[in-house]
């Protein structure tokens, strides 16, 4: 898990992220809460993601058909919201255009996840 300075707050108002919330989003989850990749219905790929960083890495390398399958069903959005507790990223993933396909879809999903993870990287500046 990435380190966040104690007492750090990102954002303002209701959408502010506390250190505790960021740690929850970035944590490693139990295997029974992991994201399981499928090629299609009843076609498991024996690939799982147990954190946001792991999800990013797996989306980079799994078959693009699996990425499209899960995005069309809203699976990434649901898992990020329900398991990781990140409603903001879930909303961003849900807004990705349904007209995207193939590598363009993969790139857009990865871009949204990376942008969100970059929001959590806080540097201590004087």
The helix/strand class is alpha+beta
Helicity level: 40-55%
DSSP, total strands: 4
- What are the low-pLDDT stretches, counting only 5+ consecutive residues below 50? 1-14, 122-126
State the distance separating the first and last CA atoms.
Answer: 24 Å
Count the DSSP helices: 6
Largest sheet: 2 strands, antiparallel
State Rg: 15 Å
Tell me, rounded to a whole number, the average pLDDT.
Answer: 87
Order of helices and strands: EEHEEHHHHH
- Characterize the overall form: globular
Q: Strand fraction band?
A: 5-15%
The strand line-up of the biggest sheet is 1-2
Describe this entry's structure for a reader.
The chain has 126 residues and is of the alpha+beta class. The protein has a domain of 71 residues. Helices cover 52% and strands 13% of the residues. A two-stranded antiparallel ribbon has the order 1-2. It has a two-stranded antiparallel ribbon with strand order 3-4. Helix 2 packs antiparallel against helix 6, helix 4 packs antiparallel against helix 5 and helix 5 runs antiparallel to helix 6. The radius of gyration is 15 Å and the shape is globular. The two termini are 24 Å apart.
List keywords for this structure.
single chain, 126 residues, alpha+beta, two-stranded antiparallel sheet, 4 strands, disordered N terminus, disordered C terminus
